[in-house]
Amino acid sequence: MLRELRIGDMVAKLPIIQGGMGVGVSLSRLAGAVAKEGGVGVISTAQIGFEEPEFEKDQAKANLIAIKKHIKKAKELACGHGMVGVNIMVALKHYKEHVLAAVEAGADVIISGAGLPMELPELVDEKSHTRIAPIVSSKRAANLILKMWAHRYNRTADFIVIEGPKAGGHLGFSNEQLADMEHMDYDSEIKEIISCAKTYEEKFKKHIPVIVAGGVFTHEDVMHCMELGADGVQVASRFVATEECDASDAYKHAYLNANESDVQIIQSPVGMPGRAVRNEFIRGLEKEKQPITKCYNCLEKCNPATVPYCITKALIAAVKGDMQNGLVFCGANVGRINRMTTVHELMSELVGA
C-alpha cells in the first residue's frame, strides 16, 4: 500500500501529482478530478486565459482572471479532497504576477520550472497557505536553488520535483544527453538529488518530499521510484487520455494515435529542448519558419523576429483541435497510450488498487 503524501500541513491520500500541461491541457476540470481522487491536481498557468474575452487585446489581464477562476473551480470540484496547485514557468514574461495571483487564489502548491525559480520564495510568504517546489533535473540544479534559497531567504523548498529525461514538454537536458538517453544512469542522479534534499532537511529541521517525474507509466514504475527513496511521483502524459482532460478530443486522439517513432525532440522558443508528437505542424517548420504577425507576450526572452514560430499560437491551436497548425507536447511513452480512460481508473491503476 502506498503511503500518503504530506506537504507541510497538507495531506494527499495518494502520492500522485498530475503534471501541469499547457496551454490549456490541464485546467480546472482535470486538476479538480485528480484532487477529488486524493492526489495533487495541477493547473498550468501558461496562457491560461486563452478562452477569456480579453485575451486577444490583453493577455496579461486575461491570464490573471483565468488563474483565479480555475483554481476556485478546481477546488470546488475536489470537494475538499487532495490538493490543487499550479505549474508556473520561470520563462514567462509575467511570472511574478502569476505567482502572486495563484497565492491570492489559495493554490495549495506552486511548482515552478522551465528555468531556475531563484526568486520564488520572495513572492510566496512562508506564512501563506501555499507551498512551493522547484523542478530540477540534476543534483547541480537542486543544490544551486536550495543553496540560494537558504542564503537569500533563510528558507528551503517545501518539496522538490525531479523531471527526468523521458518527461514531456520542456526538458532540462541538452540535445546530446537526450540523444543518448538510454545509456543514462538516471536512477543514480535521482538518489543524488534526494541526498541533496536531506542536507537541507537537516539544516531546516523539516522533511522535504521528493517527487519523481518523467516516464512514470505503470504501478511498477511508481513502486520503482518509491524504492529509490521518492515520496511520490508526477505523471502527465497519461492524464491526457482521460475523459476529464481539458484538451479537445482531437488533441487526445493525437496521443492515442501516436507511435514511438512519432516522438521528436524540438527546439522551443523558450530556449530549451522540448519533446513533442511529430505532426504536420512540425514537418512544416522543417521546410520554413512560420511568420509571426502578432506577439502574445508569453515569454520573457522571446524575440518574434528570430524565433521560428509563435509557441502561444501553436499550443492554443493544438489544444483546440487544429492539428495542422498545432504543437503537441508529450512524454517519451506516448506511443504506449492506446485507450481512453478516466481519472479514477488511472489513479487506481497507478497505485495498484
Automatic annotation (TrEMBL):
<keyword id="KW-0288">FMN</keyword>
<keyword id="KW-0223">Dioxygenase</keyword>
<dbReference type="InterPro" id="IPR004136">
    <property type="entry name" value="NMO"/>
</dbReference>
<dbReference type="InterPro" id="IPR013785">
    <property type="entry name" value="Aldolase_TIM"/>
</dbReference>
<keyword id="KW-0285">Flavoprotein</keyword>
<dbReference type="GO" id="GO:0018580">
    <property type="term" value="F:nitronate monooxygenase activity"/>
</dbReference>
<comment type="function">
    <text>Nitronate monooxygenase that uses molecular oxygen to catalyze the oxidative denitrification of alkyl nitronates. Acts on propionate 3-nitronate (P3N), the presumed physiological substrate. Probably functions in the detoxification of P3N, a metabolic poison produced by plants and fungi as a defense mechanism.</text>
</comment>
<dbReference type="Pfam" id="PF03060">
    <property type="entry name" value="NMO"/>
</dbReference>
<protein>
    <recommendedName>
        <fullName>Probable nitronate monooxygenase</fullName>
    </recommendedName>
</protein>
<keyword id="KW-0560">Oxidoreductase</keyword>
<dbReference type="GO" id="GO:0051213">
    <property type="term" value="F:dioxygenase activity"/>
</dbReference>
